[in-house]
Amino acid sequence: MMSNKFPLSTSLIGPDPDYCKLYNLWYAYAKTIGEKEAWRIAKDWGIDLVVVNPSFVVGPLLAAEPTSTLLLILAIVKGVRGEYPNTTVGFVHIDDVVAAHILAMEESTASGRLICSSSVDHWSQIIEMLRAKYPSYPYETKCSKQEGDNNPHSMDTTKIVELGFLGFKTVPEMFDDCIKSFQEKGWL
């Protein structure tokens, strides 16, 4: 069930900005404010805006330098962060994000917000899964005590599926691709 304070649906634009400020969720705050402004401009200018909203993007490294999300995963796997986030997060494979953007561009009936997310898990579940599959890495063992960003929620992907999206890669698939990419780069 979706949390009332941290919804991400096709009709609501991100989490409540005041909630984000209260719990220092600055990335979510910036994304929410930015999207609200995009919708305002689209309305003012009569633009038919389509927004693809991916959750936490995971998968292989595609650029020369890792993204902040991949750096977070690498730090958690190496056990150098001090703690892992006490968050429940939607995860999505980078390949699915690319496919969603192409679908949004090519499908003439695409409109509004398209939520792009595979499943929602707590970081402790991700670490447990990775530790079982890749036991030689140290991993973070301490969960952050930071409150406010661990609200259980779901992601409503109905709209993108109805457009013809064929299905999301699983969490194990996306993290396998991520770990293999780190290994190929010599980072693990």
UniProtKB/TrEMBL annotation:
InterPro entries: Epimerase_deHydtase, NAD(P)-bd_dom_sf, NAD(P)_dehydrat-like
Keyword match Oxidoreductase: yes
GO molecular function: oxidoreductase activity, acting on the CH-OH group of donors, NAD or NADP as acceptor
Domain NAD-dependent epimerase/dehydratase: 27-108
Keyword annotations from UniProtKB, A to Z: NADP, Oxidoreductase
PANTHER family linked: NAD DEPENDENT EPIMERASE/DEHYDRATASE, TETRAKETIDE ALPHA-PYRONE REDUCTASE 2
Identification of the protein by name: NAD-dependent epimerase/dehydratase domain-containing protein
Organism, scientific name: Acer negundo (Box elder)
